[in-house]
């Protein structure tokens, strides 16, 4: 009796927490059957490559949302760090220095966000909206408003080489999912993040250092956005000041699709991975079907609405 | 008197819990019907089915002979039912008048008729014998006044059935008196009143009939309160005899393990000094606003110290935040469990391990999930936390069980000094008794406890020593033997 009750609750738990994975699998099968060329190795790699930027940033966005905050600045961070990397490489001739300074530039944006939100008590939405504008502007200033071509071919390896027949950025994405999955599930930092999102006051009273945790979350977010920006610059062989516009909403959409609660406190890495893949899959399939970009916006928006509605239905069931 | 409202075989189940089990009883009009039972006995769930917030799996609600089917709270409102919850549903930024009339503003094709709005609101305020301005924003009112507005809202809808869920838990004596006058008046107007409370003396004071719940079941309905004794009611509630509610156990006190000297800060006006010995339970009594919670906040590092020293085991501490306090073996059980204690959307296990997991880490970094599960199960067993599993969301537990989860959080840590702010507020008799037991056990094992309570008999029944606070300072300290109600009250009351 007791045993069957726990199995039953386990099944229910699985359903409640992983329903998006079932949806993903069904979508994947349907697209494979009905969309020509979808289920080919070439297209799978293309699909994965197309979600690298969103995916890498979704890792840390998961933490930001999980702690109950937003980060809208990631799109500008991507552009800013890409430009920084390009400028530094051209100035010093050192690829390593360029990569490191690009990533550090991202971390710097994140640190400003984290400090303003945690220590100064500013609203996260407004703060990151402000830094979004500031660093988009910085990207334009640094580049004089033009794409910065990179002279060192060695830099392009980061985004365009292959390891075991799979593009390097995809490996980076996979490794980042593993690292942040472990951080979320198996470390105090991950649990504290969700506790803060669940009830900030209670988390503080339970001895969690809320401010430091938040600063770490946003700084990590900056670093990852910076990293994604450097990879993107490498793939495009240049730093683009208007790169990744609107990216923050794609990242947040992917997280929400993956069941991350906008109120904070609930997040799973499996959900986020699937959310990222669904976003990529939809664009990919629409491209294969030759649907014009304009319509793709409509479809993606509609998918997001449906996902949120499903989420609410699930919560009502609980 | 007629049977106005009838619950017929109401059953409501949640995953793993049968919250209501074939509950049947009737409520008459022109009467006040008390509902008593321990936390988790099913009173709140019953009110939720009445208000349409929950839909019962089985059974019927019959009003005036007509079987009702509520699929939303709106249906229940339309049927003349108003439930006034502990957490009030008012819009803080709107005025009293607007809050009263929300949902049916007087208007001319969409434009609000402010004059009429104000007039109707004024009438309602007068009826409630209150004296506030209808243009005051609700956020500026006291809890008692907000409650009156909730009642006013119910009367605006001309609700014939009004249910109160623990209405007095945060009111002063004077406010309670006022509330009772209003409730009596509602009864005289022929309405059916349902009154849920943990306070036995209130049930005896105003209820005409009283229904006892236990474990989701209807146990008994007493129709003649004259023939019911306090002890009988409590016995029915907990299903066993409770001789001494507090079950005080004396124990030897040891060395001083904790002391504060000349502490001063926000809400604590005059320097406060006190000493706590190992094995000692100190009760702090005082009226609302006496600075008791503020004192705890200072000690725990939630507010900045202006002056003073805090010592644990003879060692001076520079307390700056809760994190630091916990490392130095001080913990706090906050007054507002829901807002400051539990993380409702996370599991029981996570709530228990939230702090102590730092002791079980592998390689100082990775969580030891096995160890955490074991710790959760251990405390669920030891403290008899009623939950279907350790994975249950803590927000779904009853108040008493939530408090036990928070206690487990600190029992699994390495804590010597327990600060407990109203540890039994809103908790039923049976669970209170269990919490006292845990407090005595903690003290007997050499820990020190300081607790705040507004319940004078509780302070006198549980504490070894009683400290009385008034307007931000300590005004007296009494041993258990020397304490009398008169002495304590005379110290606690403001001097005019």
What oligomeric state do the depicted chains represent?
heterodimer
In the CATH hierarchy, what is the class of chain A? Mainly Alpha
Class by helix and strand content of chain B? alpha/beta
Number of helices of chain A: 14
Which features does this protein show?
heterodimer, A: 318 residues, mainly alpha, ABC transporter involved in vitamin B12 uptake, BtuC, two-stranded antiparallel sheet, two-stranded antiparallel ribbon, 14 helices, 77% helix, 3% strand, B: 496 residues, alpha/beta, Rossmann fold, 2 domains, six-stranded mixed sheet, 17 helices, globular
Helix and strand arrangement:
The complex is a heterodimer of chains A (318) and B (496).
Chain A: H1 2-34, H2 41-50, H3 52-66, H4 74-92, H5 95-118, H6 124-143, E1 148-149, H7 157-160, E2 162-163, E3 166-167, H8 168-186, H9 188-198, H10 200-205, H11 210-236, E4 238-239, H12 247-257, H13 269-288, H14 293-317
Antiparallel strand pairs in A: 1-4, 2-3
Chain B: E1 3-14, E2 17-28, E3 31-37, H1 43-51, E4 58-63, E5 66-68, H2 73-78, E6 81-84, H3 96-101, E7 107-108, E8 111-112, H4 114-127, H5 143-156, E9 161-165, H6 173-188, E10 192-196, H7 200-206, E11 209-214, E12 217-222, H8 230-238, E13 256-265, E14 268-277, E15 281-285, H9 292-300, E16 307-312, E17 315-317, H10 322-327, E18 330-333, H11 337-341, H12 348-356, H13 369-382, H14 399-411, E19 417-421, H15 429-444, E20 448-453, H16 456-462, E21 465-470, E22 473-479, H17 485-492
Parallel strand pairs in B: 3-10, 3-11, 6-9, 9-10, 15-20, 15-21, 18-19, 19-20
Antiparallel strand pairs in B: 1-2, 1-4, 4-5, 7-8, 11-12, 13-14, 13-16, 16-17, 21-22
InterPro entries (chain A): ABC_transp_permease
Main location (chain A): membrane
Keywords (chain A): Cell membrane, Membrane, Transmembrane, Transmembrane helix
């Amino acid at each position: 009796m007791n045993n069957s009750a726990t199995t039953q609750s386990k099944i229910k738990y699985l359903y409640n927490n992983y329903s998006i994975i079932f949806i993903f699998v069904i979508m994947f099968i349907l697209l494979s059957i009905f969309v020509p060329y979808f289920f080919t190795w070439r297209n799978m790699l293309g699909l994965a490559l197309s979600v690298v930027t969103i995916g890498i940033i979704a890792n840390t966005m998961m933490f930001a949302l999980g702690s109950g905050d937003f980060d809208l600045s990631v799109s500008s961070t991507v552009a800013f760090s890409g430009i920084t990397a390009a400028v530094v490489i051209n100035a010093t001739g050192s690829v390593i220095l360029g990569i490191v300074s690009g990533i550090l530039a991202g971390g710097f944006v994140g640190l400003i966000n984290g400090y303003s939100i945690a220590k100064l008590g500013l609203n996260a939405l407004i703060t990151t909206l402000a830094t979004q504008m500031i660093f988009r502007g910085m990207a334009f200033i640094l580049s004089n408003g033009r794409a910065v071509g990179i002279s060192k071919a060695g830099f392009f390896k980061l985004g365009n080489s292959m390891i075991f027949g799979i593009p390097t950025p995809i490996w980076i994405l996979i490794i980042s999912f593993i690292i942040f999955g472990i951080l979320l599930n198996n470390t105090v930092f991950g649990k504290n993040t969700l506790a803060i999102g669940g009830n900030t006051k209670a988390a503080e009273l339970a001895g969690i250092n809320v401010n430091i945790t938040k600063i770490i979350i946003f700084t990590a977010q900056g670093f990852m956005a910076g990293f994604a920006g450097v990879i993107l610059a490498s793939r495009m062989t240049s730093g683009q000041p208007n790169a990744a516009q609107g990216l923050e909403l794609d990242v947040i959409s992917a997280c929400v699709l993956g069941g991350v609660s906008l109120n904070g406190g609930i997040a799973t890495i499996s959900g986020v991975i699937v959310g990222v893949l669904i976003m990529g899959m939809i664009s990919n399939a629409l491209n294969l079907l030759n649907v014009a970009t304009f319509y793709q916006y409509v479809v993606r928006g509609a998918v997001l609405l449906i996902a949120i509605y499903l989420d609410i239905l699930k919560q009502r069931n609980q | 008197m007629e049977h106005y409202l009838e619950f017929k075989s109401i059953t409501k189940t949640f995953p793993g819990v049968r919250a209501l089990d074939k509950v049947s009883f009737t409520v008459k009009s022109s009467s006040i019907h008390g509902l008593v039972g321990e936390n988790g006995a099913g009173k709140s769930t019953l009110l939720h089915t009445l208000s349409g917030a929950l839909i019962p799996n089985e059974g019927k609600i019959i009003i005036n002979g007509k079987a009702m089917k509520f699929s939303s709270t709106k249906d229940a409102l339309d049927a003349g039912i108003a439930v006034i919850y502990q957490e009030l549903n008012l819009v803080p930024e709107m005025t009293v008048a607007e809050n009263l009339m929300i949902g049916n503003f007087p208007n001319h094709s969409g434009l609000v008729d402010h004059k009429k709005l104000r007039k109707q609101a004024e009438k309602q305020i007068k009826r409630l014998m209150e004296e506030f301005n209808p243009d005051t924003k609700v956020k500026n009112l006291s809890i008692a006044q907000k409650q009156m507005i909730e009642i006013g809202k119910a009367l605006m809808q001309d609700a014939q059935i009004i249910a109160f869920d623990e209405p007095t838990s945060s009111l002063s004596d004077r406010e309670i008196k006022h509330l009772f006058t209003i409730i009596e008046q509602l009864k005289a107007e022929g309405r059916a009143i349902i009154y849920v409370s943990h306070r036995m003396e209130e049930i005896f004071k105003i209820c005409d009939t009283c229904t006892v719940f236990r474990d989701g079941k209807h146990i008994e309905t007493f129709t003649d309160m004259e023939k019911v004794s306090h002890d009988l009611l409590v016995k029915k509630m907990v299903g066993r005899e409770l001789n001494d509610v507090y079950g005080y156990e004396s124990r030897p006190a040891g060395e001083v393990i904790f002391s504060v000297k000349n502490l001063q800060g926000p809400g604590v006006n005059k320097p406060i000094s006190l000493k706590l010995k190992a094995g000692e339970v100190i009760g702090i009594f005082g009226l609302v606003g006496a600075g008791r919670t503020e004192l705890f906040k200072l000690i725990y590092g939630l507010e900045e110290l202006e002056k003073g020293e805090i010592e644990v085991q003879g060692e001076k501490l520079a307390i700056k935040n809760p994190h630091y306090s916990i490392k130095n073996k001080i913990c706090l059980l906050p007054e507002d469990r829901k807002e400051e204690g539990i993380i409702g959307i996370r599991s029981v296990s996570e709530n228990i391990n939230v702090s102590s997991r730092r002791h079980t880490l592998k390689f100082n970094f990775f969580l030891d999930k096995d160890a955490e599960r074991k710790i959760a199960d251990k405390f669920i067993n030891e403290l008899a936390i009623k939950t279907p599993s350790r994975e249950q969301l803590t927000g779904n537990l009853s108040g008493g069980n939530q408090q036990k989860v928070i206690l487990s959080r600190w029992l699994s840590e390495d804590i010597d000094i327990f600060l407990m702010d109203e540890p039994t507020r809103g908790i039923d008799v049976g669970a209170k008794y269990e919490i006292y037991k845990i407090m005595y056990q903690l003290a007997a094992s050499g820990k020190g406890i300081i607790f705040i309570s507004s319940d004078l008999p509780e302070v006198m029944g549980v504490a070894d020593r009683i400290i009385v606070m008034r307007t931000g300072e300590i005004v007296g300290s009494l041993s258990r033997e020397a304490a009398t109600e008169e002495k304590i009250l005379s110290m606690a009351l403001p001097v005019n």
